[in-house]
Amino acid sequence: MAMETTVSLSVNSDRLQSRLYKLAEMGALEGGGVSRLALTDSDKMGRDLVVSWMTELGLDIAIDRIGNVVGTLKGQTDQPAVMMGSHIDTVSTAGIFDGNLGVLAGLEVIETIVDAGITPVRPLSVAFFTNEEGSRFAPDMMGSAVFTESLALETALETIGIDGKSVADELARIGYLGEDTFPSVSDTVSAYIELHVEQGPVLDELALDIGVVEGVQGISWSEYTFHGTSNHAGTTPMSYRQDAGVVAAAVMSYVHQLAESMPNNQLATVGSIEFRPNLVNVIPNYSRITVDLRNSNESELKRAESELEAFIASLVKKHGVRVEKKVLARFEPVIFDSNMVGKIESLAKESGMSTKRMFSGAGHDAQMFAPHCPTAMIFVPSQDGISHNIHEHTTPRQVTNGANLLLQTILKLCM
Ligand code: GLV
Ligand code: MN
Ligand code: MN
């Protein structure tokens, strides 16, 4: 079918909305959000539901050894596929759009194309990747990192989560330890595109329709464990203490100040902290904290990492505690394909949508594809910039805009 005809296609907004809300029933939280930590029972329910939709649509379904699921519509040729995708695992306090939108909009784009009786020249795939969030098992983007061969399968499978269970065991338990293997990405995927909610305030504040994503900032996750000595809170003079808790607290406040003191958008978060024995009148002999540092400039990010290291070195000396460090994740900033970025921008403008070029603050599966094939992302607004929160919201009109722009971009890429 000629492009002039296909260009007028639009997605079925009601079908997309109904799938978003149906998927949100899997792991639903009181108040409207979802908790579908990777490889939990609720993740399995979400996976089964999306797989059932892929099956109804007649897609070929492949499940690889890290549990990534790829549904493919055959093309007129067997050239490398155009792939859409994202994730359906969530943080435990999630809204219903993060990740899910990219997967379900991809499905909707394929269904729209099928309904129109079009067979694309290239195969068209929609994928959901295992453990994008990294909240239960680090690193984040685990499935897409294995898919793109930047993380070894065995390393990923051996990863132990925050509850002591391994990725391999949990994949097997929920029935997603697949057997399919994919040849290298550059041989199987001709382009990758991901629709996602912005998860930040920019588009909402400026009342814009679309974020044209130029790249993703770098991410550095580390975990520090401090070992001190437990002692009596009332009898131990301050100068006698090896207080692991006070060290963790000092790091927490230091990284916040460090980020504020650095220009150019350095970000720093301590999102998890643990004390032992965690009692009112016992000096902690153990503390564990995670540090999330992000910057779109790699040398600035390295500077933040080394300043933190120096601070911790002096701190442990001063307090007489011992430190262990584990790198949980490290991704350099990524720049997306300028042709695809330009194409998305011009297609949005042709459709009368207002746009802004922007960098992504959050990590995404797309960043794993960028070194291997032309890759880009489309953002739609997040109300009040809220995400990783049950109140995350994007209106049906904004969702439809994003899905239609994804459709228009896909029609250019796969015909
Ligand atoms: C993952 O989505 C992250 O950016 O933390
Ligand atoms: Mn996401
Ligand atoms: Mn997320």
UniProtKB/TrEMBL annotation:
Query: By its UniProt entry, which CDD domains does this protein fall under?
Result: M20_bAS (cd03884)
Identify the residues that the record assigns to the Peptidase M20 dimerisation domain, covering every copy: 216-318
Q: Show the Pfam families listed in the entry.
A: M20_dimer, Peptidase_M20
GO terms, molecular function: hydrolase activity, acting on carbon-nitrogen (but not peptide) bonds, in linear amidines; metal ion binding
Q: Which UniProt keywords apply?
A: Hydrolase, Metal-binding, Zinc
Residues engaged in binding Zn(2+) 1: 87, 98, 196
Query: What InterPro entries does its record include?
Result: Amidase_Cbmase (IPR010158), ArgE/DapE_CS (IPR001261), Bact_exopeptidase_dim_dom (IPR036264), Peptidase_M20 (IPR002933), Peptidase_M20_dimer (IPR011650)
**Superkingdom of source:** Bacteria
Q: So where does Zn(2+) 2 get bound? A: 98, 133, 388
Task: Name the cofactor(s).
Answer: Zn(2+)
Name the SUPFAM superfamilies for this protein: Bacterial exopeptidase dimerisation domain, Zn-dependent exopeptidases
How the cofactor is bound: the record states:
Binds 2 Zn(2+) ions per subunit.
Family, according to the entry, reads as follows: Belongs to the peptidase M20 family.
Name-wise, this protein is N-carbamoyl-L-amino-acid hydrolase
Organism from which the protein derives: Vibrio hangzhouensis
